[in-house]
Predict the structure.
Amino acid sequence: MDKIISAKNLVKSFDNGGIKQTIIKDLDIDIYENDFTVIMGSSGAGKSTLMYCLSGMDLPTDGTVIFNGKDITKMSSDELAVFRRSNCGFVFQQVYMLDKMSLLDNVLTAGLLINKNKKEILKNAKELFEKVNLSEHTIRKNVNKVSGGEAQRAGIVRAAINSPICLFADEPTGALNSETGNAVLDVFTTLNNDGQSIIMVTHDKKSALRGNRIIYLKDGKIFGELKLDKYNGDSKERNDKLNMFLEDMGW
Ligand SMILES: Nc1ncnc2c1ncn2[C@@H]1O[C@H](COP(=O)(O)OP(=O)(O)O)[C@@H](O)[C@H]1O
Ligand SMILES: [Mg+2]
């Protein structure tokens, strides 16, 4: 499998009121193409911080991040913004969309930032909306007229519209109930089955079960790692494997 991201000696510190806090401590990690990588750990463990450093949303204090062959830690913030736009897709707990526009127009706007071929973007958008089960009718609604789950699924379409090298998701079901949360997780599974590489940060077991590689973060380092088969529905065996792993990790 090809490496899409390779981080070495990653350190991330923050200055909190004059006190230096090191959240990521000399961490190495490789991310592979087509994996659904899940980053777990307790609240405050540094999961989001690690994801931000791997995705170029933030720069590490020290260390290197080679992303698709380029050292993103050597880029200026302008270069990094351009790089992110064409190589990364982001999904957060909250969906930040332009609220005077329809779901479709939000997605097309994001697509046009990278690709000037409107016909092609429209075709890609329609295909993705179909994959995430949003109807022609729904995608023409304004963002403030749809449910949280529908908005999040449209948010994933927006994140995936430019075929990013990697899709990054930070607690994407955190604001949803379990039914709509499941529909959102199904979208990630579908995209991953179609070849989309995904990194998802979560403290939710149900979300973690979707991954085929679970990384556990503790004390600023990778404390353990679990490999699973690709997700093919919930099973007792899969559940047990994750539970045993998490118990080992001191979850
Ligand atoms: N922008 C920031 N400024 C200062 N401290 C931060 C910042 N982001 C994160 N931290 C610190 O890093 C710790 C870990 O944060 P985070 O990566 O969000 O944890 P997690 O996602 O695992 O819950 C926080 O408890 C906080 O102390
Ligand atoms: Mg977080």
